[in-house]
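S1.2 Input.
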Amino acid sequence: MAKAPLCCFFSATAIVFLFFVGIIFQAQPFYVRGLDADNVESCQKAVWGAFFTYVASFSISLFIMKTQDPNIVEEEEQLDSGYNASYAEAVSRSRSQPLPAGGDVQMLPTNVKVRMLA
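S1.3 Output.
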């Protein structure tokens, strides 16, 4: 499962959004409800700080995507598929073997039909 492309996508989305918010805060802050003249400058700093944080996150994700060995991704996928296969095998094995004697596990019937009340 590739995490860097997903992080790259969300970072790019945040960059675009914060860029437009930063432009609005700088050019026409009077359009933003609840933004007083006292806190305009602190809000601008916060928006641009978040913008550059997402730029850094985007850059790091791109770097990881470019330098990551493709064999590592294949190994992770094989491990995931191996886990899923072993889980499916364990489930099928548990269904075919009887429960141990003296166990207090109650089995629910599998042929119960449920009728929806409308």
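S1.4 Remarks. The chain has a mean pLDDT of 77.
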